[in-house]
Design a protein that fits this description.
- The protein contains two helices and no strands.
- It is an all-alpha fold.
- It has one domain (2-67).
- It is rod-shaped.
Length: 68
């Protein structure tokens, strides 16, 4: 009797592993997450440059308004 229970558990485990291997949705979500992460990492240095440019423009506008 115990051998039958072991076989059932093994079969259930193999069925579970097969179902996981067939499921691609989780892998796709991880891939999209990695792509978004890489895009964000690439954007970080350029955001600093953009922020400095915006700050310069706003300072110029402020100086023009205060001298007028």
């Amino acid at each position: 009797m115990p051998a039958t229970k072991d076989r059932r558990r093994t079969n259930k485990m193999l069925d579970f592993i097969r179902r996981i291997q067939k499921c691609n949705q989780g892998a796709t979500a991880v891939e999209y997450g990695l792509i978004v992460t890489l895009i964000i990492i690439a954007m970080i240095p350029s955001l600093g440059t953009v922020a400095n440019g915006i700050q310069d423009v706003l300072n110029k506008v402020s100086n023009e308004l205060s001298t007028s």
